[in-house]
Amino acid sequence: MTPASAAPRALHLRIATPDGLAVDEAGVRALRAEDDSGAFGVLPEHADFLTVLVPCVVRWHGADGTHRFCMVEGGMLRVDGGAEVAIATAAAVLGDSLEAVAARVREARERRLEAARNARVEQTRLHARAVREIVRCLRPDLHVDGIGRLEP
């Protein structure tokens, strides 16, 4: 523990994704996250700690008193030396409010769903083209019309 006369220590928070460093913030006064056992908090001087996060919203208080939020898709959280907090996650969505994070998560989800739909359509198109080519090679006497019907 720090003596009463000393300034309170703060946490240095880093949240990393495969795309890079999403958060690199010093002066964090408190942090909350969630693992399989439930929600937990981390304050300066916390014991060294390692846990597996579930998909959750990580919340923290900055040195200036602002509240920040980051949705993480699970990952690993490590507290080192009572001052360093590192989170490694597959994806992170930042915001200054829960509403902002929720909106960005919805937008990202809609983009992923649209991309998946487009991929399925393209896969079906390629499959149909492959079948037509196979039929054309195996049975040159047959013709496949534009909608997949075989014609002599």
UniProtKB/TrEMBL annotation:
Keyword entries, A-Z: ATP synthesis, Cell membrane, CF(1), Hydrogen ion transport, Ion transport, Membrane, Transport
Q: Which residues form the ATP synthase F1 complex delta/epsilon subunit N-terminal domain?
A: 11-90
**What's the protein's topology in the membrane?**
Peripheral membrane protein
Report the locations given in the UniProt record.
Answer: Cell membrane; Endomembrane system
* A Pfam family: ATP-synt_DE_N
Q: Which InterPro entries does the record match to this protein? A: Alt_ATP_synth_F1_esu, ATP_synth_F1_dsu/esu, ATP_synth_F1_dsu/esu_N, ATPsynth_dsu/esu_N
Q: Main localisation, per the record? A: membrane
List the signal peptide residues: none
Family, per entry: Belongs to the ATPase epsilon chain family.
Q: How does it assemble?
A: F-type ATPases have 2 components, CF(1) - the catalytic core - and CF(0) - the membrane proton channel. CF(1) has five subunits: alpha(3), beta(3), gamma(1), delta(1), epsilon(1). CF(0) has three main subunits: a, b and c.
Task: State the protein's purpose.
Answer: Produces ATP from ADP in the presence of a proton gradient across the membrane.
Query: HAMAP family, from UniProt?
Result: ATP_synth_epsil_bac (MF_00530)
**What is the protein name given in its UniProt record?**
ATP synthase epsilon chain
